[in-house]
Known about the structure:
By secondary structure, the protein is α/β, with parallel strands linked by helices. It starts with 11 loop residues before the first strand and ends with a strand. Helix 1 crosses helix 2 (about 80-90) and helix 10 (about 320-325) packs across helix 11 (about 330-345). The radius of gyration is 23 Å and the shape is globular. A hairpin with a 2-residue loop joins strand 11 (about 185-190) and strand 12.
Amino acid sequence: MLDTMRRRGPDSEGTYVHGDTALLHTRLAIIDPEGGKQPMSLDWAGERYTLVYNGELYNTEALRSVLTDSGHTFHGYSDTEVVLHAYAEYGAACLDQLNGIFAFAVWEEKRGRLFLARDRIGVKPLFYMQHGNGLLFASEMKTILQYPTVKARLDREGIAQLILLGPGRLPGSGVFQGIREIEPGHYAIYQEGRLKITQYWKLRDREHTENFAETVEHVRWLVFDAIQRQMVSDVPIGTFLSGGLDSSIITAICAGQEKKNGKRLKTFSVDYLNNDQFFRASKFQPNSDSVYIGIMQKALDTLHQWTVLTPEMLCGALEEATIARDLPGMADVDFSLLAFCGDIRKKVRVALSGECADEIFGGYPWYRDPAVREREGFPWAQNTHQRISLLRTGLVLHPEEFIMDAYGKTCRESDILPGTSALERRMKEMVNLNFRWFMQTLLDRKDRMSMYHGLEVRVPFCDYRIAEYLYGVPWEFKDYRGKEKGLLREAVKGLLPEEVLYRKKSPYPKTFDPHYTELISKEFREMTLGHSPVWEIVDKAQLKKLLEGTSEWPWYGQLMRNPQIMAYFLQLDFWLRCYDVDICP
């Protein structure tokens, strides 16, 4: 089990064993390499607490000061030690005081009690499985699957998720039978064979009393503060730079801070061989990144590095990307990010990235297209009937109902003040849908592809204070001047060159090289001629029919067209074989 964790934590490892309890940890050392070793134990008020922790705390010093005033003594300066002391002092209530990305467990030795917690947004993963007379938990499912008596199994619900929702998945589900996930903003207590899960945070609606100018200033302060907090590190940092609004904001603020310290910021971009020759503009990807990256690099004088990927490199990363995620993922978007993170890790151990601004500020096309916005169902997967047609007959009963139940449940869970207008109500439902589903798929991707190479990626727009505040801001403000993320653009005026500030949104880039399609098509044809386990759950003829046509909507999100659909099912084939999955509907 420890072996499966070493890619996430290449710097050190430790174990704690007490009776029938074992805690294992591998560490990626970012703050206080010597003083932050784990598992970490503390004797306090008659109890012995032992912590294993993955993440980063961004208000470490403020919380350490409060705890020191309460009588706590610290032996190092790591955030790990602060989290441990905070739990000893406050118990579960400590979560209200943590600003960061985290998943952690605390074993209370004398009480015989285990506490598990995950950050509010869900940046860091935490899976678990009640098995036999005990509980298994880990950052990744591969660790749980390594336990000798655990078998990888796929039941009807898992099949439904892979085909009807994939690469998304039900909140709290690990897709494998019996493996669950502590949801964002939740904690759990396990004692005497019983597991109790409690939600400690969710998006709450509130009356917005500030005018537009005040809102702009508030957003500007929140964004600057979140980014500056997340630069804390004892090792070199860098930023992902796509030339889009979100990564450019982060890069500009970080470059300014580094310049004050007499340093040049390291920035990183990904591109594809001959992409300038093959790029085709579309509704979802209106322009390529390279020109805008050049504008930002020149304006900020950063130390810039390009990673240029070939079709062969993308296809070669298919299997590794599947292992990194433990599930089929976002096809070549995963493959390219995995290779990109490996390249970045050669230069820095920490990087900041622009995920989640679109979910929070309403940047996606489906927020702004009234026809899509009002349509029932997940807006990033407008292909329900195509997906249903792929299922082998009888595997999933009432598949459309399965999808709509999951969709409707999330809408109903949205916190909305009484008297809210129909438009505002729908926009809050859209935020919650994106927050609970689409954003989690992107956070899964970023965490697994980066941590596979021992690279910590921070996502400042996931600061819970930004999410809380923006949820209550009227759509009219967010959509200022009818432009996606208009409020955010107004808040950072003067920070970015005009061309970048008003650039139309473009997602993480994919390759348009026909050679990539040829390579994927060749592998896909070979799969269709063989005895792949995929055909136990997928109707081969229907999948071929789907790929012979051109759908109006991508398979998932904005980028997954036919080459990516083929790659997704190649991932599914590899996953079923590599993980030796028992299909037991």
